[in-house]
């Protein structure tokens, strides 16, 4: 498959971009971030139902689009470019993927199948009740436990998208349970990322229905691989916005973008972003093939994800930080939307495995063993 | 022509020709249009899409191939320029022996006084009837001692601003007045040369492009050069990272935590650079390389330098040795050969040759990002009036 974008992917991009240009302008995102409801439920409804992004990864038999990670990645690029406060990553990617993988071997129970169909239709929004900081390469932090009466108990910190969810998918050991969001306590915390806040999810005797198996490494790696496309979108917006600024901004009677000291930094950033695009595309491409676990293709997809997540995380942060610096005093103001991107970039760097965690994973994946 | 037709053609060609006769085989391959399929028919190609070249390479793997070392300048720079700007006669005269390696090419661009500011070059070409008389000095000329021909940029009109007074020629390296002297490099060997041109007479039929259009022609060459230098390895874990990784895997006693951390970061950077190169090649599949190629060369240079430096450090005691300081002529340009010390020193040239990394950043900033140039004091001044 190609590292470029297909015509269908470009059409999907255009429809998402048009909608966001109309409904998700940076000043509106900033105002919403300061309000009591950081998620834009109306925008999410339009995106998921009219454009159909919620069901992209869901097979056609459940009413989804039967599309692949490649198309989901294109949507993420656009959502990143707009730091759109919608639960696409948390519901349509992470939760949906967890549900799909839960049913891979044993098939989904009726409750799981219904949920997939509701997710695809955009009627229900879900969240995977796992810390956003969880790494695919480490055991999950203290698990939720199954009580004797079949209910669930435990506390999960730093869950993204929980406050936007109707349904929580809760891992209990290697099993995945479905819990009504209304049966959990969800406390949103003041969060570094204003447009994707985190919450503490507390379950005390919450009724849950087992929907299948949970393979943390696979689900989280899939999410990490796709998150790189959102990071790419964040980086692209920061680069374009900074570029426009340094063309316009005059000091010493010249556009500051005519000084080599600044041009060279921009050239390096552009190069970093160009490589981020190739890496994110490659990860989406290999994940789209859905390789069988343990095969050569699966290892290749894991390596591509580790490469992309370590690279794109750092590039998004770097471009956002350089953006703030090159905007000068303006870059430090609350009024300018750059900080929304810096905050998203910095939080995404930690999300689903830090750059260091992904590089460490390459020790095994690229056969570069650590010292003995 | 589609993939299947190209494949059939390559299979039929292989069945009918003896790879044991290297020159004969390569000549016949050129004549069959299987040298570079995207070139026109009659000039070694089939007028087919560029990406179908891979089909030919797969079918003809293991047969004699052009030498990417000694023929680098001919294949990577002279050929695309001759194709874009040469007359049909020039194309028919030069491309076949260029491709088969029967004639080696070198590049007479840089001068002692014109490096990054190439357009300020001072080598003069003065018209004399049907001939041009060339006088000047060129430098950093790889392979000039093997070369039959050179691509040459010379000043034909000193009375106009620097970019406008240049003309592009093919220079006969066997002509009287061409003198090649080796130039020793920090590696100890002489891969480069100085070339002195004294009253060299070139027929007007060796001019490439219009008189005064030399800068535009040279720009085509330079963009192809950067893609040639920065094209990078096609295989995951190949190239310079492959050399270092092999040492790492086979010599566990050399490993430290600090080196491990840096190696993993460089492995990631090598891989994203390789992928960006692959993506760029997909974009270029149909057309000429754009300024994005310059960016690939930037990454390639800094990666090669970081990796070859790590390699020396990794080897500890052994890194203190050097294989051979003997002053000798190089057979070809080689970034990956010999020992780690050689590779470390040779890689220093990667951010200088084919456009310094500083100039390439300007190119990316101005042509890709559309940023304004620094104020230029020499833009509208006739070349002869420039301070020097």
Automatic annotation (TrEMBL), chain A:
Its cofactor is FAD. Residues 217-361 form the Acyl-CoA dehydrogenase/oxidase C-terminal domain. The keyword Nucleotide-binding does not apply. Keywords: FAD, Flavoprotein, Oxidoreductase. Pfam families: Acyl-CoA_dh_1, Acyl-CoA_dh_N. It comes from the Bacteria. Residues 6-105 form the Acyl-CoA dehydrogenase/oxidase N-terminal domain. Belongs to the acyl-CoA dehydrogenase family. This is Acyl-CoA dehydrogenase. It comes from Streptosporangium pseudovulgare. The lineage of its organism: Bacteria, Bacillati, Actinomycetota, Actinomycetes, Streptosporangiales.
């Amino acid at each position: 498959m190609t590292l470029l974008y297909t015509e269908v992917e470009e059409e999907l991009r255009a429809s998402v971009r048009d909608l966001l240009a109309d409904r998700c302008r940076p000043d509106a995102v900033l105002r919403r971030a300061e309000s009591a409801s950081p998620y834009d439920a109306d925008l999410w409804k339009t995106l998921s139902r009219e454009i159909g992004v919620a069901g992209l990864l869901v097979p056609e038999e459940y009413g989804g689009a039967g599309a692949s990670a490649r198309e989901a990645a294109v949507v993420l690029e656009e959502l990143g470019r707009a730091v759109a406060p919608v639960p696409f990553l948390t519901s349509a990617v992470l939760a949906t993927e967890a549900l799909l993988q839960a049913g891979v071997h044993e098939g989904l129970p009726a409750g799981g199948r219904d949920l997939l169909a509701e997710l695809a239709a955009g009627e229900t929004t879900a969240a995977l009740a796992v810390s956003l900081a969880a790494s695919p390469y480490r055991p999950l932090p203290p698990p939720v436990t199954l009580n004797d009466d079949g209910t669930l108990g435990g506390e999960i910190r730093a869950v993204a998208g929980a406050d936007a969810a109707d349904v929580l998918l809760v891992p209990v050991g290697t099993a995945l349970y479905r819990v009504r969001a209304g049966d959990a306590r969800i406390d949103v915390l003041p969060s570094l990322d204003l447009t994707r806040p985190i919450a503490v999810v507390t379950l005390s005797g919450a009724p849950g229905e087992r929907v299948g198996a949970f393979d943390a490494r696979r689900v989280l790696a899939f999410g990490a691989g796709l998150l790189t496309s959102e990071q790419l979108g964040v980086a692209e917006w920061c680069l374009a916005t900074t570029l426009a600024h340094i063309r316009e901004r005059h000091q010493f009677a010249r556009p500051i973008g005519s000084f080599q000291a600044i041009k060279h930094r921009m050239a390096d950033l552009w190069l970093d972003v160009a490589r981020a695009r190739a890496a994110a595309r490659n990860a989406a491409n290999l994940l789209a093939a859905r390789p069988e676990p343990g095969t050569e293709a699966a290892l290749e997809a894991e390596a591509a994800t580790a490469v992309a997540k370590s690279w794109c995380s750092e590039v998004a942060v770097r471009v956002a930080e350089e953006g703030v610096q090159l905007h000068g005093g303006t870059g430090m103001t609350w009024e300018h939307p750059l900080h929304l991107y810096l905050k998203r970039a910095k939080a995404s760097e930690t999300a689903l495995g830090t750059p260091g965690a992904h590089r460490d994973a390459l020790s095994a994946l690229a056969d570069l063993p650590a010292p003995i | 022509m589609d993939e299947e037709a190209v494949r059939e053609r390559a299979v039929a060609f292989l069945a009918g020709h003896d790879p044991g006769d290297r020159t004969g085989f390569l000549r016949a391959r050129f004549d069959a249009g299987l040298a570079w399929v995207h070139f026109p028919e009659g000039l070694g190609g089939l007028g087919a899409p560029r990406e179908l070249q891979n089909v030919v390479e797969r079918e003809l793997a293991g047969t004699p191939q052009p030498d990417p070392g000694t023929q680098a300048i001919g294949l990577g720079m002279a050929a695309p320029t001759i194709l874009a700007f040469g007359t049909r006669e020039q194309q028919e005269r030069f491309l076949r022996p260029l491709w088969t390696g029967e004639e080696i090419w070198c590049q007479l661009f840089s001068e002692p006084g014109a490096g990054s500011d190439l357009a300020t070059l001072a080598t003069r070409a003065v018209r004399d009837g049907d001939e041009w008389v060339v006088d000047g000095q060129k430098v950093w000329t790889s392979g000039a001692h093997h070369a039959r021909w050179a691509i040459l940029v010379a000043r034909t009109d000193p009375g106009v601003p620097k970019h406008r007074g240049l003309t592009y020629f093919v220079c006969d390296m066997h002509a009287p007045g061409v003198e090649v002297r080796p130039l020793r490099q920090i590696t100890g060997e002489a891969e480069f040369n100085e070339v002195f041109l004294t009253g060299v007479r070139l027929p007007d039929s060796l001019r490439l492009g219009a008189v005064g259009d030399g800068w535009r022609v040279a720009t085509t060459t330079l963009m192809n050069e950067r893609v040639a230098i920065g094209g990078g390895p096609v295989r995951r874990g190949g190239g310079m990272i492959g050399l270092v990784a092999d040492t790492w895997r086979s010599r566990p006693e050399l490993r430290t935590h600090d080196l491990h951390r840096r190696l993993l970061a460089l492995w990631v950077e090598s891989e994203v650079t390789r992928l960006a190169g692959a993506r760029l090649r997909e974009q270029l599949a149909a057309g000429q390389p754009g300024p994005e190629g310059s960016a690939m060369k930037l990454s390639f240079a800094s990666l090669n330098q970081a990796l070859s430096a790590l390699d020396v450090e990794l080897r500890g005691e052994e890194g203190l040795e050097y294989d051979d300081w003997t002053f000798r002529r190089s057979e070809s340009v080689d970034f990956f050969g010999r020992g780690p010390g050689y590779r470390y020193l040779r890689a220093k040239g990667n951010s200088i040759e084919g456009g310094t990394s500083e100039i390439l950043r300007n190119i990316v900033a101005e042509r890709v990002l559309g940023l304004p140039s620094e104020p230029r004091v020499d833009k509208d001044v006739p070349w002869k009036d420039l301070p020097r």
